[in-house]
């Protein structure tokens, strides 16, 4: 990859959401914003190798995208009102009045999470426009076909346009009703960065985890008493703290094999503090708070042998009541294996086959349990299926090594 190509890739990670959000605010049209941003990046791919990388890539991309958007508006005769608005806006125009949210990207999240859309559509649209994730990446996160995901995004944009949903700062009264869907969005953006699935991408995309944490911090500052916002922030921090030990020499390192001395003590301390703050309120926790508590138990153990699996299983039992999904049941089975043995856990995992057959972590878990039971041939087949479904290069390397060690 040339220096210019690398610069475009870095700019896409750092500036995509900012460009789309800026154009959405200016033109009030999600389609125009996304298409103009895409055209600007395509122009950068063509021009930066020859002209050199501009001193301020973000400003260059925003200016180029704005020109592309204005050109499109001019070509569409039925957009005379938007054309006039676009052409009369200048850098000297007074800023819009401050509202509850003063960050364009977070405003875009709330706009895409409008109640007019079903929750899956809100999440898919926001991941595409804010996170810059591709359709295949989002489809992996949703465990759905790419064609279905593409249709979901298209319909979401059309519904927002038909409902004339404005791009504006939500009022303080609107925030609580929107928070739940926004948290789902932020968690999925974080997860895609934590275990990136895109072809040719780094196995861990720190730009996405950092953006998800930044936006969640901002949301926490706006809603400091919302337990689930606090819980999600704590969860992200405790997972991010383990990032320095998660990938070594291009291979994923499982939690039980990680160098715990490489974990970020500052993030762990902050995450633990947030978990304790929520416990002190005495309010029944939600899903993200329980997940944060599970990770707090993991990060409290300085040696994997010191892990309090009884507490983790009790927390999973609490989580199952809040979220009786097959993925939660799969993760609970991992704790069961540590307390009751791999055979009991395998029986629980096999009961999930009908709902998780296309989920690579299901086959990873089965492979590990079969390996521990000494059923090498079945374990190899499960590893093969997990490798086939996995989209992360570091995880594929890890699974391949474990499979090959079976002999």
Architecture overview:
With about 400 residues, this protein is mostly helical. It has 21 helices and 2 strands. The chain has 4 domains: about 90 residues; about 100 residues, no CATH class; about 80 residues, no CATH class; about 90 residues, Serine Threonine Protein Phosphatase 5, Tetratricopeptide repeat, CATH 1.25.40.10. It has a two-stranded antiparallel ribbon. Helix 2 crosses helix 3 and helix 11 packs parallel to helix 14. The longest helix is centred in the N-terminal third of the chain and has 25 residues. The protein is globular and about 70 Å long. The chain starts with a helix and ends with a helix. One of its GO terms (biological process) is DNA-templated transcription initiation. InterPro entries: DUF6596, RNA_pol_sigma70_r2, RNA_pol_sigma70_r4_t2, RNA_pol_sigma_r2, RNA_pol_sigma_r3/r4-like, TPR-like_helical_dom_sf, WH-like_DNA-bd_sf.
């Amino acid at each position: 990859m040339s220096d210019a190509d690398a610069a475009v890739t870095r700019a896409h990670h750092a500036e995509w959401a900012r460009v789309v959000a800026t154009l959405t605010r200016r033109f009030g049209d999600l389609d125009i914003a996304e298409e103009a941003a895409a055209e600007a990046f395509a122009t950068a791919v063509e021009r930066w190798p020859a002209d050199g990388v501009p001193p301020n890539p973000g400003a260059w991309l925003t200016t180029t995208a704005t020109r592309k958007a204005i050109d499109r508006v001019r070509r569409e005769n039925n957009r005379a009102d938007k054309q006039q608005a676009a052409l009369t806006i200048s850098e000297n125009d007074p800023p819009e009045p401050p509202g509850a949210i003063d960050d364009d990207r977070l405003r875009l999240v709330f706009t895409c999470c409008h109640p007019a859309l079903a929750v899956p559509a809100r999440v898919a649209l926001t991941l595409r426009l804010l996170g810059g994730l591709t359709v295949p990446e989002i489809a992996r996160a949703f465990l759905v076909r790419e064609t279905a995901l593409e249709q979901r995004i298209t319909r979401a944009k059309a519904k927002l346009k038909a409902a004339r949903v404005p791009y504006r700062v939500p009022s303080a009264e609107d925030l609580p009703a929107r928070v739940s869907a926004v948290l789902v969005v932020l968690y999925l953006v974080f997860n895609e960065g934590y275990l990136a699935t895109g072809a040719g991408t780094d196995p861990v995309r720190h730009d996405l985890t950092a953006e998800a944490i930044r936006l969640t911090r901002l949301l926490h500052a706006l809603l400091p008493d919302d337990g689930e916002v606090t819980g999600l922030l704590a969860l992200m921090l405790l997972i991010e703290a383990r990032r320095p030990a998660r990938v070594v020499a291009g291979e994923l390192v499982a939690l039980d094999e990680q160098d715990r001395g490489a974990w970020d003590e500052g993030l762990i301390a902050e995450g633990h503090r947030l978990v304790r703050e929520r416990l002190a309120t005495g309010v029944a926790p939600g899903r993200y708070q329980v997940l944060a508590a599970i990770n707090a138990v993991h990060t409290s153990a300085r040696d994997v042998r010191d892990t309090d699996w009884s507490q983790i299983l009790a927390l999973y039992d609490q989580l199952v009541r809040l979220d009786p999904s097959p993925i939660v049941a799969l993760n609970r089975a991992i704790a069961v294996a540590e307390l009751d043995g791999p055979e009991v856990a395998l029986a629980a995992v096999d009961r999930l086959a009908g709902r998780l057959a296309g989920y690579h972590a299901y086959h990873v878990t089965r492979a590990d349990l079969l390996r521990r039971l000494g059923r090498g041939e079945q374990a190899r087949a499960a590893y093969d299926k997990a490798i086939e479904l996995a989209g992360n290069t570091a995880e594929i390397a890890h699974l391949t090594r474990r499979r090959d060690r079976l002999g």
